[in-house]
Each structure stands twice: as C-alpha cells, then as structure tokens.
Amino acid sequence: MTGLDVPGPQQPERPEQPLPEEPAADVAGSDTRRLAHHLPDLLRAAHVETVELDVLHRRPSFQGGEVSSLAKSLTDPAREEHRCRGFGFWELVLAQTVTADPETRRGLLKGALRHNSNEAIRVHMDREVFAEQLAAGEFEELPPRDLVAFYSPVCVASDERRLHLPLLDLGVTPSQDGEAAAVDAIECLGLSGLLFESGRSYHFYGAEPVTDRELVAFLARAQLLSPIVDSRWVSHQLIDGRCGLRVSTDSEKTPSPPLLVARIGKLQSPLD
Fold this sequence. Notes:
- This protein is of the alpha+beta class.
- The chain folds into two domains: 35-58 and 119-264, DNA primase, PRIM domain (Alpha-Beta Complex), CATH 3.90.920; 69-112, no CATH class.
- Helix content is 32%, strand content 21%.
- The chain is built from eight helices and ten strands.
- Strands 1, 2, 3, 4, 8 and 9 form a six-stranded antiparallel beta sheet that branches.
- α2 runs antiparallel to α3 (89-97).
- It starts with 38 loop residues before the first helix and ends in an 8-residue tail after the last strand.
C-alpha cells in the first residue's frame, strides 16, 4: 500500500560516459539507478518545495469486444503489432474504422477518446516527505492496476507563478538504439534532465521548471517527434494541462521500477 493519506484504489551535451551496470534492486529499492536516488536531487536543484501526485485505479484495457466482434477483430492484431513496435495501437485501429460499419466505428472512436484523469485523487506533498516515501518503497508493489503518478505542477521557492517540470513519456522500446533515439529527441528539444527506462519505454524528467504557456509549447513540439515520443500520451497531458509519469509499480501492468539510464545536459547540484 502507499504511504499517501488517501483512500485506496480509486542542444545540451551528451553524458560523458554510460552509467555502470548494477544489480537488480531488492524490495527495499537499493538499486542506485532508481527514482529515489535521483529525482529528489533534481527537485532540490530546481528549488521545488511541493510536488503533486495522482492516485488512481486504472480501468481495464480496451479490448474491442465490448463494442462488437468486428471491433475485437480489429484491435487484436493492432495490439500484437503494438507489442512488437511499442507504439501505434490506436493509429492502426482507427485506420481500419474508415471502412467499418457505423456502430463499430463510433464505438472505436469513443474508445480512443477515453481519458482517466477525472477518476484520480490528487495529493500535494512536501518535497522531502515525497523523497522519504519514495526511498521507503511506499509506492512499490501496489495492488493490480493501482497507480501513483508524479505530476508536473510544482511550487518553487520564491516564485508565486504556476510552474511545471517538463516530463516526457517516450514511445521507443528499451534497447541501445531506442535509448540513443530518446536522448537525441530530448537534446533536439533543448532539454536537460534525467532519462529513466520505464520497463516498456523511457521516462524523462526535465531539470528546469517552465510556465503554463511554455509547457504547452514544449508538449506540442515534442508531439512532432512521434513515434519516438508517445503522441497519445502528449494528447492526454494537453487535455489535462499538466504532465504525469508513474512512480509506482504494481503486480500486473507495471511491475518494473523506472531505472536511470542517462543524465542529459548540464544539471545543477542540489547545493547550488
């Protein structure tokens, strides 16, 4: 269970050298590549005082059978293709809806527009409390499909504006080439920060807070880099007006904790 006091389920420079390989973490999270060893320092360096988390229980994945047998026959091969490529499920499905019967087409269009944010519980937390809970493994091994996500809005010391940390969900699968493409994309966007392997792809946490307007511009530019950047993730963040990345693991959908693979750009020390 989480340590949150909420109800239950509801052109920067490249790194100079690759990070060393380390053993897998135990339940307590001893692997020094984990979020707990790096994200708090990034927050301290950015003078972030308060962070925002969402807690939710994810609905079952869209299967198509709830719409029609034809819809299921379209989603099954698209899902298999998505497993191989790491992206493009809905693009493949929607391309087939043009010639589908009206009921199937409308059902698939409604499925593609599903959005979870209204079902989440939002929590604001002091940075150091968040760091302690992250280090203690409070967000590890949650019940199936339960999720805790870190969101972009942050309170920065001596700045009353609404600011965000730039976050990105990449679409490429973990590999040497995938990591290189992710780093190149982030560099081309002019960002500095930390890149984590998320299990199925990569997550990026930017080091320099931005305004609401800058966040929208950043997301719109990042969406141009699809499929290296997950374009559907970007769309959902634009709907919300903020960005979110999971910091939890569960026993079914996301059992792998994010692990640091690259530091991108010139990062400040938390003591600066």
